[in-house]
Structure formats: structure tokens, C-alpha cells
Amino acid sequence: MRIHRRMESWYLMNGLRAFVLLVVGLTADISTHHSPDERQLRSVLTKLEHYHTMVPLLLEGTEQRPISWLRSRTPPASLHILIQTEGQQLILSVEKNHGLFASHYTETHYREDGQTVTSTHNSTMNCYYHGEVQGYVHSEVTLSTCSGIRGFVLLENKTLMVEPAFEPANDTHVIYDGHHLHFPSGTCGHGHNISTVSNTNTRGLLQSFRTRHKRDVQKTTKYVELIIVADNREFQKQGKDVEKVKQRLAEIANYVDKFYRVLNIRVALVGLEVWSDVDKCSVTQDPFTTLHEFLDWRKLKLLPQRPHDNAQLISGVYFQGTTIGMAPIMSMCTAEQSGGIVMDHSDNALGAAVTLAHELGHNFGMNHDTPERGCGCRMTVDRGGCIMTPSTGYPFPTVFSTCSKKDLVASLEKGVGMCLYNMPEVKMLYGGQKCGNGYIEEGEECDCGEPEECLNPCCNATTCTLKGDAVCAHGQCCENCQLKPAGTPCRESSNSCDLPEFCTGTNPHCPANVYLHDGHACHNMDGYCYNGICQTHEQQCITLWGPGAKPAPGICFERVNSAGDPYGNCGKDAKGSFAKCEARDARCGKIQCQGGANRPVIGTNAVSIETNIPLQEGGRLLCRGTHVYLGDDMPDPGLVLAGTKCAEGKMCLNRQCQNVSVFGVHKCSAKCNGRGECNNKKNCHCEAHWAPPFCDRAGFGGSVDSGPMRQAADSSAVAVGSLVTLLCLLSAGLMLCLKRKALVQFLCANKKNAIQKLRSVGRKQTPSPPQTQSVFRVSPQHKPPSLPLHSRADKMSHPSSEPLLPAHSFQSLRRMPECPSRCQPVHISHPMPITLQPHRTLRATVVHTLPRHIAYTHTQDHDMPSPPQKPLPAHPLIRSHGMGRNVRIPAPLAIPIPTVPRPPPSIPLPNRPLPRLPQPFYDH
Predict the structure, then answer these.
(1) pLDDT in tens, 841-851
(2) String of b and e for 776-814 (b: at least 16 CB within 10 Å)?
């Protein structure tokens, strides 16, 4: 019996051992076929101190449904989800993130043969949500329902992470506190920080530029049109599943959009790209090289094909050291550097999302939250702190500090991010449309949200239609449910290179932001516009050295930047080595300044580099540069910024001094006819009284992009004013004509014959007693014959030894007012016989100049004077210096009335011929 029992025990033990080995073997075999999600979750759970599982439920009124109910349905616009954690029930109220995908959103991946596959249809369902926890103030929820529930719940004192368990088919999920997750911290490639300066004697990197702060950049919503690219290593890390990679990238973007919403910035995906065959640029463990290569690929390949504002690379490669991300600072919207690289360092997508938000913050101009800055953060360090902390780890930060907000405002006011003020089209929302989601979609006149939350008096929340006489319900150009008049300013310019926008009178939304064309002169011709910013050496010197700083002479730039070392260079080449500056590019390398503070004012990690250059005439020239100890992922702030004027007609581009003609600004401005300037859309922005598109006709100013800059009321006032002025001028002209006619009649009736004036000039003998003077009408039958050219001068009738006429030039002929038609022209050498019938009596008057073909009255003496005894002088009259000046001649003596007409006496010619006189000139 004992032997038998022993045998049974032996069989039992071996059976159990075999069973255990079989189970272990099966378990090991199964573990080798885990999905990427399961492997990631297992990796996370091994790092956790505490977690538990639960089954979330969907709440629809009084009904409860399992999460698996969503798999066969289109994601609804809103959800209410019940979860349990540590014996506590939480209700998550979330709304679909309708603004996550732009209407021109595309997805791209590559086949094994390298062929590009791009889809523009709804290949990714919009299953991404934002919301809050019911009953918890300041709570936040961001999650996706694409494959179970995956996201985070932010409460006042903790951050909960939720994701599907090993068997999502039974709706089991894992929930844990991020604080319990142990994970080594990662750092941003910036290394040290550009700290802001003290409040007493220094200014920040961005705030030093004295620009016009017109636009309220905090109230205006900004939109980042983002493209996220996954490299081949990330594709392999996600099990070579293209759809899974796309979902992860979209999930990352959904998190980032949630982080930035509190800053009034929305992140909209315009594209996802997966390098499913090979990497399209070099991706190595060297983060600097990878960043450089990616930004070059973006500029040359991606940007021309798909316009966007910013691009980020999600890499599965582990970078050297502790670096998990890199991005150039203050580079948003630039073609060269608006982007960054992010290492997908965490099994949870939230980790990569926080890093991407951090690098995007650098693109916006945000600096690190270092202790010396004294930043305020509503999350304590043990709860993750804020997003812009130099290093990050579990729990992940999800909020921005007060320093980040100040940096952002200062950067935007300077002009960074000029491309962010146009809202992407969202009329073709992915995942369907719904009245009450807050987005105006196709077929809707307005959308103010659900009826219980709608506060818009112009919109019917139930039908998404306008109420009553309302014309609009949303937009900066909508006021009291009516459109604002055309020409009403809706977005002021933020700096000298920015252009204002105006309401069009037909659209409730403000036109997209536009600015001056690259290469346009600015800042009193000291700089050129580039990406909507006016860059000058002087402004950068003030930024680095404070007030009183100015650029050093050109010899400083040439001598220092020809070294090619950390203290004088033109940046780094593709290998990461410092590049020497050519003489023509020296002003595009390390900036050299004079004056200012004793040390750089941009931060505690910046040092002064002073170089003394001996001069030929004696003495030394002090050149002051800076070196900031930063990582390799951002441009050295001591380098001259792109777009800075380096010579007349040239600016710095890619560390080279290039001609601004490469932008075509002069050709573009030429079509504006000198009455406007070219904007970044290559359209004319016309002056106030000229009309686009070419400023060649009267109008209201502005451009086809920015709207009219004058209101119609202004033009009406101008028209009324012009009409009143015209009427006044016409009235004055009419009165002048009437007065002139009376004056002409008066002058014609009183003027005397020129021969009478000549006879009376210089007469010294006592005149005979005055007799009654009569004026007779000259007979029209007798016309004076024309005289030869040499004898067309007035001559005396009788010789006399007395002085002749006052000196006068015959070349200065005068014009007389027109005489009535009854007067006939009479030449003084051939007087016409007069009639005995008197016409009227006139008093003596002043002689006026004689126009051509002017008739005049004529009087004669009964007794003619004797002819002169000596010849006339060669120049009897003095030349008049004023062509329009009148000569006054004494009035003639009274002449007795003749009783019998007598023939005119002959006038002897002088013995000496007179000089030839020019042909008289008469004004018509």
C-alpha cells in the first residue's frame, strides 16, 4: 500500500509539474504574440505601485450601456461615462472635439515600393473628446473612444489615467494615479534656459522691442494648422499598423489641443504622415542632426505640397542623453524653423503629447520655467508641475505657468505667429455634423451649443437658425445680430509690418490676417519685413544689451565672424560644426554691438564676448558679442535673426546676405500704381481713397484680403462736401462773370483814343479853354489800311521839340477789355471821318492796353498840331519789365466839337527810318 501510494504521489507530482510547465509554456507562447497595446500596458503596470481595474458604463438618461456599444456606431457628439476609482464614482461629461480636424485634412503613408498613398476622406473617425467631471470645479477630461476609453482625468489633487485592459472585449479598463507611476525624467534639448531679466534694470528677450501693441492678442483666438509625422521606427514600434499609428498621432494632437485651449490657441490637424517604408530624412540618435534634417525636409518637400503652420516629428528613436525633444525658439510660422522633434518616450500617448506641447511652446517663444524666474504654477512639482519645466516625467504636466503665458503674449505682440489668426475651415467635420456642437457646419446659420447652454440672443439653439430679423449671430463683425458696416476695424495691426483688417459688410467674420510682403522696407528704412516682423540690428542689440545699445561698425562683424568658433560664426553646418562667415555675409553671423549694459540682459547663462580691434589711425575698437549656453536645438540668440537688413536692398537668409528681390516685392508693388503696398498674398493694400486690386481708381482703400478701410459714410460725407464746394465755386464764378461784364462795359465806354493820349503827353503850353467834348460813332464804311511792318508804330501828328512819350518798349504790348460790337478798329495814322451825330458824353479815363481787333471811340481836335521838327529817337519808349503791368497816361485835353468834317492831315515821316519792330503779339 505504501508503495502504491508513493507511486500515486509520484504520478500526481509529475502531473502537476507537467501541468505547470504546460501553463507556463502556453503563457510564454501567448506573451510572444501580445499586441502592441498589451505590451505597452504591461510595461506600464510593471512601473506602477498601485492600480485597479473597472468597467466603465455609458449613461443615456436612466439607461446604462457597455462601452463596447460604441464600436458599431458613429461616435456621438457628447457622452456621459461612469467610471469607478477607489470606491468613488465619477461621471465624465465630454463633447466631441470638432475642431481637431481641418476640412483639408489628409493622411499619408507609403507602400513598400515607396509609392505614396494619400487619402482625403474620413478614414479616421473623430472619436476624440474634451470635457469635465460633473461636480468637480476646475476638472478636465481628455479622452478618445476609438478602441475603448483612453485618456486622463485631471482633478484638483490628482491625475487619473484610463486605458483598456488586456482583454478589451469584456470592457475591462485599468485606472491608476499618474503619481504612482515611476519613470525616469527626460529633458528638453535646450539644456539651460534663457531666463528673463530682473525687474529693475533689464528687459525680457521679447519685451524689449518697442512695437505698437494694438491688437489684443490674448482675446483673439489663434489657430495652429499642424502636421504630425511619424518616422519608420515609430511605425515599427506600433506593430507596423498604419491605422494604429494614425490613431496615436491624432490622440497626441487631441491632448495638445486641450493644453493650449486655456491660452486661446486651438491646434487643428491638417495632416498626418507615416513613414511606413523608410525615413524621408536622416533620423539618428543625435537630436541636433535629426532636427536640422527634418526642418530642411519640411521646408523643401512638405511645405510646398501641403501648406501648414507647424510640423512635428514623432520618433521611435531614443536620442542621446536625456533629451526627449528639440525645437527652435520663437520660430512659429517661419518656413525654415517652424517645427520640432519629439521622442515617443512613454507607453502612454500623453507623454509624447506633453513633450510636443513643450516644443511647440518653444516655437511660440516660451522659455523654461526655472526657479529664478519665480513662475506661478497651479500644479505642484510632485503633481508634475507645468509644461515648460526643463525636465518632465510622471506624473505628466498638463498646465502652463504664468511665465509661459507672459512669454507667449510678449512673443505674439512682437509679431511671432502672424499666420495663426485665420480660422481653418471646419464645415466638413469628421465624424458627422450635429446642431448644438458649437460649430457652424454646412446647412446651419448659427450654432450656440445645446439649448440649455445657449446664451446667444440671435440664434435658435434647437434649429441652429437665426431668430427673427437677425442677420448674424457670431463673429467679430456681428453686433446686436446685425452686420457691422463695411470698413469697421475688426483686427488692428500689431507692428509696423502688420496690416489691419476691416469688416466687409457682408460677412460676420473678420478677414484672415495679412501683413506686408517680405522684403518691404520698414522702421524708417532701417529694416525689411520678414514673416510680418521688422528685424533690425539695433533692435537685437537692445534686446541683448538693453537701452542705449547700437550695432558696432562693419569691421567688427567681419573680423569676429570670420573665426568660425563659438564666439564668432555664421551658425552651424549640417555636421554641427561652427561655420565661418564670408565677408559679404559677416553681418548675418554673431551680432556685434556697442553701448548698453555692462553684461547681457537676456539671462544668467549669457556671457559677454568683447573683442578689441586695432585701427590704422591708432586706438582700438571695442566689439561686444554674446554667447548663451544653450542646447543645440535652437538658434543662438546671439546670432543675427533671419530677415535682418544686412546691406541696402539685402537681408539675412540662411546666414547669407541675400537680395530682397528674391521675394519679388518690387515687382508686386509696381502693380499698385504708387498708391498702395503689396501684402503677403501678393495683393495691393491700397490707400484710403483708392480701390483694390490695383489702386488705380477711386475707392475705399484696403485690399481684397483685408476688406475696405473706409466706411461708406465717410465717402458720402466727402461727396456732400465736394458738392457744396462745387456749388460755391459755381456761384462765385457766376458773380464774377456778371461783375466782369459790367466792368468791361464801363471801361469800353470811357477809354480814349491812343492818339489823343500821345498828343497830350508832355504838352507844356497852357491849354485852351475847355469846350464841350463829344464822342462820335466811327463810320463802319471806312477801315484803316494795314501798315508795313516797319511803320506799325504810333507817330506824332506834328513836329515838336518838346519831350516825347515816356520811354516804353513796343515789344511789351497790352490787352484792352473787349469793346461792344458797335465799335470799329481805327489806326492812329488813318483817322476816320466823324459824323455830326453825338452818341454820348464820357469823361476822361485811364488808357488800357489794346487787344487785337478791339474797336474804340475816337476824338479829334479841330486845330491840328504842327509836325515835329526833328526825327524821333530810335527807342522812344522805355521797356516795361512786367508783362502784365499797366501804364497810366495823362488824360487828353478837351477838343472842340467840329462843325464841318475835314480830311485828316498827312503825317510826315521822319528823315531817319525807325528800327524794324517785331510782329505784335495779341492774346486772344
Answers:
(1) 445 444 444 44
(2) bbbeeeeeeeeeeeeebeebbbebbeeeebeeeebebbb
Q: Grid coordinates in use for 37?
A: 497595446
359 is catalytic: yes
In the chain, the amino acid numbered 880 is S
Contact 387, 258 (CB under 8 A): no
What is the percentage of the chain residues whose pLDDT exceeds 90? 37
- Domain extent listing, the chain: 63-190+216-421, 433-474, 521-663, 766-783+806-863+887-898
Cα 480 to Cα 488: distance, rounded to the nearest angstrom: 15
Please determine, for residue 867, whether its predicted confidence score (pLDDT) is greater than 80: no
Integer-rounded Cα Rg, in Å, for the chain is 47
* Exposure class string for 62-84: b at 16+ Cβ within 10 A, else e: eeeeebeebeeeebbbebebebb
Q: What is the DSSP letter of 498?
A: B
Tell me how far apart the alpha carbons of residues 315 and 249 are, in angstroms, rounded to a whole number. Answer: 11
Residues near 677 by Cβ (< 8 Å), separated by ≥ 6? 516, 517, 520, 669, 684, 685
Q: 63-190+216-421 maps to which CATH number?
A: 3.40.390.10
Is residue 388 scored above 50 in pLDDT?
Answer: yes
pTM of the predicted model as reported, rounded to 2 decimal places: 0.62
C-alpha–C-alpha distance, residues 529 and 519, integer Å: 5
The residues with which 614 forms a beta bridge, in sequence order, are 620
Q: Position of cell 533620423?
A: 283
Candidate list 359, 413, 444, 445, residue with the active-site label: 359
pLDDT score, position 144? 92
Nearest to 183 by CA among 156, 161, 151: 161
For residues 267-287, average pLDDT? 94
pLDDT digits (tens, 9 = 90+) for 207-242: 333 333 345 567 778 899 999 999 999 999 999 999
Q: Give me the mean pLDDT over the 582-598 stretch.
A: 93
- E strands present in 682-769: 684-686
Helix or strand or coil: residue 104?
A: strand
Residues 6 or more apart in contact with residue 220 via CB below 8 angstroms: 264, 421, 491
Segment among 33-37, 135-139, 329-333, 498-502 with least mean pLDDT:
33-37
- CA pair distance 487, 551, nearest whole angstrom: 41
